[in-house]
Amino acid sequence: MRALAHPVRISLIELLVIDGPLTATEAAERLGESPTTCSFHLRQLARYGFVEEAGMGPGRNRPWKITSAGMTMDMEGADPATDLAAQALQRMFRDRHLSRLQAWRDTRATYPKPWRDLASENQYVLWVTPDELEQMEIELAAVLMRYQARLTDRGSRPEGSRAVEVLQFIFPVDMESLGLLGSPGHPGSS
What we know:
This protein has helices spanning about 5-20, 25-30, 35-45, 80-105, 115-120, 130-145, 150; strands at about 50-55, 65. By secondary structure, the protein is mostly helical.
């Protein structure tokens, strides 16, 4: 978590996932930072295994690439301070994701009609067991992973493709506290 506790590092990871490999200078141009700043933060990310050198470029160029797209944090048994830090980091990621969603909403009219027609926001409430939820996550991940290689292999990206972000939040909801269960005549009320 310490490696990710800086907004420039998060921006570098996101940039490398979408458009890597890149040199510190190329990343700096896209992020509006100095090459020295980006170089420092790339070395810090490499120290913790998030990025690595992608081989030598021409001259003194050192392109960097992401080591894997996606990450999970298993906080089972974490002490309270670590858990609090992880929550703050997850909140920062979620805020970045949601700000990109809002940016899409704000600029939707500028996109070609097929992108406007196919982009969607969906919300479902499902009644499932933990085993069913696990299976659902496996199946959803399998569909999304069919396109994963395109992140790092630019040559596999079809003509006309563009980066699309898929946000998935799966969490239990206390329907009773929301007033959605237990009211007279409502299915599931006793």
